[in-house]
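Lab meeting, action items carried over

1. Structure of the two-component assembly. Owner: GW. Status: complete.
Input record:
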Amino acid sequence: MLDIAVSYNRYKFLGYEFLTWLWFLTDKDREQLNKWDQELTSLDIGNRIVLENRLNDAVETLTIKGDDAGLEEGILALRKGSVVTELNLLYKSGDHEWRFTIKGESFNISNLKTPETGGIESKDDIEGAVLEKIYLHEKIATFIDNVFKHFIQLRISEDWDKQVVPLLRKWIGET
Amino acid sequence: MGLLSSAVSITRYTVKGELREPVPEVIAEGLKKNAIKEIDDDISEKAVGWTSFENPFKPDFEGSSFVIGTHLIFSLRIDKKVIPSKIIKKHFAIEMEKKLVESGRDHLSRNEKKQLKENVFTMLNRRALATPNVYDLVWNKEEAGLWFFSNLKAANEELETLFLKSFDLTLIRLFPYTIADLMTGLSDADRDVLSKLSPTKFTE
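Predicted assembly:
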């Protein structure tokens, strides 16, 4: 395996492309996501998107915030050559809802809010609460790993350039 | 940031290496040896160590206190004293004045000033209280996975260093490339393709 720091920097683009592709799926191919995660009811873009455009040596960052984030501005930025570096997502399974932000370059998860869990009234409740929280956190990690696995398989295949990229270009150009 | 908080940040790792037998005792020993030490009455500026998840201000790793289900749960604590620069400046000026009067001279050498500054720093550190920061972690030993409940660069670096020192195991951060390499079941040929990838242009 490559040196950790080298591979982190050299392959940051995989995370950016993954988030762009995931955004595309939430907009155009939700069925695919449901096929990969049968417990998923819906996946939507939440209240934050961060995009970055590198023009020569200058880096331009665009942050779109707000519950009704103006996605069209994000698409416009993609059209100008930006990449998605951070995405807030809303994952629903049945009546339960998870919200979290994922960073493309590190896959760090932040601001992860899980469905409500039972309160802790005594010391004896802690063990159950911990296991419940771990289960709820794992749900998101498993989802990301699972979808990312499909992304990687696609990314290293010929289908990426022949089928996926044209669809993404069309989406960016027409949305 | 705590595992039970309403909103959490997570940095994920995979644990590389095997623990010596008997595993529970080796872990307990690693935790006890590297438990956080109080520095409030000490001249130290910073302390880093393990602490208990349930009682972060009284570390206790006896028995199976850090095991919940199949997970090992404990916390990293970083205590740091922060002395505002204006306080350092004030006490340095006081001490310098005192020294000049005592010696009857009108200036101090560079070395004397340096020594004085160190003395002031030590004196202030002894009087200052450390601010504790506690970061929980969940270690799934069976799957060799570890979740650290913070995305802070400095806290993650302290975790990686202390984990290696305590258990002789390396933590590998899970980010796009390492996840692709370690967790997606790629063949050697696939890995070769992966290593040669370059960024896609989504605009023509």
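2. GW to write a short summary for the group page. Key points so far: Helices of chain A lie at 4-10, 12-28, 30-36, 71-79, 124-155, 158-174. The radius of gyration of chain A is 18 Å.
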